[in-house]
Amino acid sequence: MAELMVIGFDTQQEADRVLTELRRLQQEYLIDLEDAVVAIRQPDGKVQLKQSINLVGAGAASGALSGGFWGTLLGLLFLNPLAGFAIGGLAGAGAGALSGSAIDYGINDDFIRSLAGTLKPDSSALFVLVRKAQPEKALAELSRFKGHVLRTSLSPEQEARLQAALSGTASQSAAASPT
Q1: Which domains can be identified in the chain, with CATH numbers?
Q2: What is the three-state SS of 160-174?
Q3: 148-152 and 31-41 as β-strands: parallel, antiparallel, unpaired?
Q4: Cβ-contact 3, 178 below 8 angstroms
Q5: I need a surface site. Which of 36, 110, 140, 178 has the fewest CB within 10 A?
Q6: Residues 100-118: what's their mean pLDDT?
Q7: How far apart are CA 36 and CA 3, in angstroms?
Q8: 3 DSSP β-pair partners
Q9: What value, to the nearest 5°, has the Cα angle with vertex 128 and ends 126 and 133?
Q10: What totals of helices (H) and strands (E) does the chain contain, helices first?
Q11: Tens digit of pLDDT for each residue in 49-95?
Q12: Which of these, 4, 5, 10, 15, lies nearest to 39 by C-alpha position?
């Protein structure tokens, strides 16, 4: 089961830095991210969301491949596979982009916007949905960053360990399972 963690930061850039570190940890197989979103509250109070997964682009790419394949097959029937590939690819890309924009994958956008609206201006938050993690190593790496836990689906003791790591008060030996 995936665990949700929302961590607030005092600067706009810090959430992006932490997400970059989490991606590095994912490449080292120390954490498995299902979804991650950076929310930035601008000085004027507007909230900007940076999704880690671009569903419109992914939908367009997969739709173009699928449409190109089916277009080529239909084009073979009418003795013009190149035209079938082109028309099918374009139609598939359009349909894939449309379906990608309509899908809400991972963390609910309404939840993100409502919680990000409570941030103070000129700050950021990182919304992370984690499938699994190597907690001791991940917490040790994240202890360089200073943030505060806004909301989690972790147990109270796991949440306390995460907050301790983010505030720099936990030793590496005291870091235990966040998932």
Answers
A1: 3-53+107-174 (3.40.1520), 55-102 (no CATH)
A2: HHHHHHHHCCCCHHH
A3: unpaired
A4: yes
A5: 110
A6: 73
A7: 12
A8: 130
A9: 130
A10: 6, 5
A11: 888 654 445 545 655 566 666 666 666 667 666 776 667 666 666 66
A12: 15
